[in-house]
Amino acid sequence: MKKFGFNENQTENLSARVSGKERFFAAIGDFFGGGAGSMITTVYVVYLAINGLSAGLAASIVMIAKIWDAVTDPMMGVISDNTKSRFGRRRPYVFAGGLLVVFSFALLFMPLYKVESDVFKYAFYLFAYLVFSTVSTVISVPYSALLTEISADHHERNGINTIRLVVSMISAAISAGVPIILVETLQKQEMRVDAFSVMMILGFGLLYAVPLVLCAVFTKERLPVPKEKTVFSLKEFVKPLRVKAFVYLVVMYFAAFTCMDLITTNIIYFVDYGLKVEFSAFLILVTIMVSYAATIPLHNKLMRTKSKAFLFRMGIPLYILGIIAMCMYPDNFGDYFLFPIAAVIGLGMSGCQLLPWYIFPDVVDIGELKFGNRNAGSFSGIMKFIRKTTAAVAIGVSGWILELSGFRPPLTDNLTGEVTKFEQTAEAVLGLRLAIMIPVILLVSTAFIFSLKLKISPERSKLVSRALAVKAQGGELTDDEKTELKKVEEECF
Q1: What is the C-alpha separation between 120 and 445, in angstroms, rounded?
Q2: Confidence class for position 7, pLDDT limits 50, 70, 90
Q3: What DSSP line would sit under 86-103, residue for residue?
C-alpha cells in the first residue's frame, strides 16, 4: 500500500480501523465547511452594503454566485469520482482548495468604498464571489465524499461525523460571532473598513486553509475505486435522484439549511433594526448554536436505537414556535426574554442541522446497492446543487424584500472609511421580520413531511452494509435478511 493512498484492488482496507488521530484530522477539515459558509452568509451582504451596494444588489450577488456554486458541484462530483492518483480521489482536491482559500478571501474582502462606480463594484464583487464559490466547490464536494469512504463501518462513520459536527459548530460560532462583533464595531465607528478587510483575509483565510491541508495529508480513503468511469451528462447528473431515499434526504437538507442561511443572512439587521436591542446580534446567534450543540450527545446516543429521520423532525414544532415568537417579538417588551426564545429555536432546529450528514453515508450505501457502484461524489454534488440553488433564490428574495420595504443599509464614508447607520421605517422593520418568519415556517414544514417518507433505521443501515460486504467479499444473506432487504429496496430504491 502506498503511503498516502490505496490501490483500487486492495479491498482489505475495508476492514481497517480508523485511528483517533485520523478521525481528528478528517473532522477538522470541516472548519471550512462549517465556518466559511456561515461567515460569508452572516456578514457578506452587510459588507457589500457598507461598500456602497444596495440590499437588493448585494443579495443578487450572493444569489448568482450560489447558483454558479450549485452548477459546478455536480461537475466536481463527477471529476472527483473519476480521479485516480496515488493520493486517492478526494484528498488532492481538498489539499489544492486549502491552498487557494486565502487568495479567494483577498478578492472577497477587497475594500472598494472609495470607488464611485457601482457597476465596477458590482462586477468585481460578483467575480470575487464566483472565485470563492469555485474554490468552495473544489473543497466541499470531495470532502463530503471523503467522509463516506474513510471507513466502511456504520458506527465508525457515525463517530467521525460526531467529531466533525462538533468542529463544524465551533467553527460556525467563531466564524459568525467574530465578524458580527467586527461589523458592529464598524457601525459604531470604532474601526475602519480597511482594518476589517485585513482581519477577514488573513485571520479567517488561514483559519480555514491550515485544517484543510492537514486533513488532506493525514487521512486515507479506504473504499475501493469503482472500475467504471462516471461520465458527466444529464442522465448521469440526475441518476442519484432515482434513489427515493436520496430525494427525501435532499429535500430535508435544503429546507433545513436554507432556513439557517436566511437567519444568519439577516441576523445583524434583524437584531439591530428589527428588535432594537442594545446587545450584540452575536449573543442571539450563539445562544441558538449552543442550544442545538448541547443536543449532540443525546442525538449520538439515540441514533443507536432510533431512526435518524425521526430525530431530524423531532424538534421541528419547537423550531416553528420559536421563530414565530422571535419574529413577532415586541421591540419594547424586555430584551432578555429573547434568550430563552433563542434557546428554544436552537433546540428545535438541532435535528435539522445535525442529522442530514449522519444520514448521507447510509443513503450513499443504498445507492451503491441499487446501482452496483459507489459514486459518492455524484451524490454529494447533486445534493449541494439543489440545496444551494434554492438557498440562492431564498437569499435573493429576502434581499429584494428589504429593498422594496425601504430598508436603508449602513454606508461607508469614502473619505474617512467610517460607517454611518440610518433609521428604518416601520415598513422596513416589518419586511425584516417577514423575510425570516414566513420562509422558515414553510421550509421546515416541508422538511417534516419528507422526513416521514425516509424509512432508514439503524438495523436497516447495518443490513445494507452487510449486503454490500457480502457482494464484495462473498458469502450469503439469511432468509430473514433477504426478506428485510426486499422491503428496503421497495421503500428506498
Answers
A1: 41
A2: very low
A3: TT-SSHHHHHHHHHHHHH
